[in-house]
Amino acid sequence: MDCRAGSPEQFRDFKKDEFEADWIKVAECRFGQVYQVKIKLWREQYALKSFDTTLCADNFYSMKPPLLHLNLKTSNILLDDHLHVKISDFGLIHWEEGMSKKVFVERLTARGNISYIPPETFTQSPDSPGTTFDVYSFGIVMWEIMTQQKPYAGCSVTTVLLQVSQAKRPCLEMIADQRPHECDQMISIMKQCWDQNPLMRPQFSDTVRKTETLNDVLKIPGPSHCHKNGDMGQKSYPWLVSPEHKITLPETPDLPSDGRHKNDGILSLLFKKDFSSFRHSVRREHACTEFSGQKSLLHYTVASRDSESVKHVLSLGAEVNCTTARGHTPLIIAVLQRFHDIVSLLLEHGADANQGDEDQWTPIHFAAQNDDDKSARLLLDKGAVADAQEKDGWMPLHLACQNGHETVVRLLLSRLSEEAVVEREKVRGRTPLHLASCYGHLNIVKLLLVHGADPNGTDHSLSTALHLSAEQGHNRVVRQLLNSGANSDNLDSKGFTALHLAALKGHTGICRQLLSHKANPNNQTLQGWTPMHLAALRGHEAVVVQLEGQGGCVNSKGQNGWTPLHLACHHSEPEVVAKLLSARADPNITEDSEGWTPLHVACTSVSFPCVLHLISHHADVNAVNSGKKTPLHLAAQHGCVPIVKALLLNGADGNLQDSSGHRALNVAQCCEKWEIVQLLENEC
Predict the structure, then answer these.
(1) Rounded distance, CA 237 to CA 436, Å?
(2) At 556, is the secondary structure helix, strand, or coil?
(3) Which of 49, 452, 493, 502 has the most crowded CB, counting CB atoms within 10 A?
């Protein structure tokens, strides 16, 4: 066993007798076993993987040449209880001198690594894999983390090979639109890592430096820290799926740890939690002192959590509604920290329950965002306005619905009118029902509907709650909205129905629900796209089958006359192509702008499986577009030998000329596709 010891650069070998005898097997596969073991010297537990030595070469694990993983994928990235990353399966895949690329790829494919293999591996170059191999794999891993999806999901090995060879990568559109702008820099790093040219990929050291810098900017919280950047109520890593509305936390006063300055000496007693000495030492003049950021002694005393000290400072004449530079009152600090006894104390001493900060966030906004129903009740009982709006029009109810705080929602609904329940925030015009539906909070959706929420209410983009829940894949919320009278055919500002959005995202169950409630499968967006187009575009063959079974037209023409079959061929989705053709999609239908058939499109996209499906369904191999180009012209231009062979074997005429008088042979010569030139010369 090899293991890091000491600094990150050091490795050491362990002998079997350095482990305690009770090895516990926790997993087994055909490549080896995983045991829970304990090292005698360190008395710490580790996971140890032992390999079947018949599958490993003698030079199983070496630092010279540089250590390559060659098996980097999300399933080999492990997290401990503190979310520290551990990379597993080092050395399971290795390159041997003189090994053929074919054997190497077979080993990689056998491990399920096809989606993580860089394009140069598929070439006949004898060069051995270098560090850029792992850099490419890391780029794919970054995409998985940012989308929470599997790359090339549902694609065959052949399709992935063709797409990667043609510089096609996992779809960037699957990365959430609502994200901090710093994530765009992360996407840029990802795209550099998976560059088609290995020489253009960055070194891992550069990538680490850049990503660590971004982590500082993004302030991604750890598992045991308070949520930063205003992402209260959002668990884990909120930047992956950004909430609708973020805030900046009130600054909790930092207490100095020494008495370097005269006034800091008072604060030091709070820091040391020497509250008795603090109350004995503090004077009336201290209660009126202003510290950095316009913080008062009362702010610091509230932050210390000692209610007796708070009471004492108030008795010395401290202003109970004093504010920091950002408008935060002592009451806001107490609410944020859930110091309920101090919240009650401040309210009894005249704290204004409706005094907001610089963004007009009142204490009850913070309580609602923080899932603090006790503070919310205390505030409401002291006159807090339940439907108070901050600068963007958000009420506490909006915040509680967004974050799924059901107890707070129930409390607020008991104090609100029906008019407030349908109130829109200003930025997107979304109601509490929109927010609860978007985030899948079923019980809150039910509560809002009972209290008069309109299931067909629209936001500024004319989206209903049904649009949002269908797009996000919340099946039970969709069912509840439909049963409560939501119209399945409402159009948003782009002409999308809920069915369009569910089809685009591949939510088969939601599509089934919508269709059973009479959703029109042939509604067209402003660009002319039907749900069938969008499902074909994204490769969701199950949705295509479902739509066709409920009356969806497989030959419907959208923008520029493109059919679902054109789109599926353009995006190299052979499974969808097969389903469409089986459902009687016309393989020879032409789009409107240049007269391309699906076969023209498939040849341009270099999708060999799509070409085979089309030919097997009698696609015309000699069809010409408006420029008189045949599929053979396009295949020759893009240099795909298998496609050229398939076309020729099925009757493609190499003597046909395009509008410039060129045959496919001339095109191949101009594009320097010499293997195809030889092939066409032999045919002619």
Answers:
(1) 20
(2) coil
(3) 502
Structure pTM? 0.65
In this structure, the number of other CB atoms found within 10 A of the CB of residue 350 comes to 11
Q: What is the rounded radius of gyration, in angstroms, for the C-alpha atoms of the chain?
A: 32
Contact call for residues 399 and 368 (beta carbons, < 8 A): yes
DSSP, res 506: T
Number of helices and strands in the chain (H, E):
33, 7
User: What is the DSSP code string of 597-658?
Assistant: -HHHHHHHTT-HHHHHHHHHTT--TT---TT---HHHHHHHHT-HHHHHHHHHTT--TT---
Place of tokens 């899948």: 440
Cis peptide before 65 (omega within 30 of 0): yes
- How many Å apart are CA 285 and CA 683, to the nearest integer? 101
Half-sphere exposure of residue 207: CA atoms within 13 angstroms, side-chain side:
22
- In this prediction, residue 354 carries a pLDDT of 97
Question: What would the two tokens of residue 546 be?
Answer: 């479902």
Token pair recorded at residue 515:
């269709």
Cα distance between residue 222 and residue 243, in whole Å = 18
**Cα–Cα distance between 457 and 302 in angstroms, integer?**
43
Q: Which helix (H) or strand (E) holds 307?
A: helix 307-315
Nearest Cα neighbor of 668 from 623, 627, 638 is 638
Q: Cα(580)–Cα(194) distance, rounded to whole angstroms? A: 32
Distance CA 34, CA 24 (A): 8
Identify the CATH homologous superfamily for domain 70-218: Transferase(Phosphotransferase) domain 1 (1.10.510.10)
Helix 297-304 with 307-315: angle, nearest 10 deg: 160
Strand order in 24-29's β-sheet?
24-29, 32-39, 44-51
pLDDT single digits (tens) 517-561: 999 999 999 999 999 999 999 999 999 999 999 999 999 999 999
Alpha-carbon distance 505 to 608, whole Å?
26
Residue at 509: amino acid letter: G
Instruction: Give CA–CA dist 91/153, Å, rounded.
Output: 27
CATH 1.10.510.10 domain locations along the chain: 70-218
The dihedral over CA atoms of 80, 82, 86, 88, expressed in degrees to the nearest 10, equals 10
75: Cβ–Cβ under 8 A, 6 or more apart, which residues?
A: none
Report how far residue 205's alpha carbon sits from residue 608's, in angstroms, rounded to the nearest whole number: 38
400 pLDDT above the threshold of 80:
yes
| Contact predicate 362/386, CB 8 Å | no
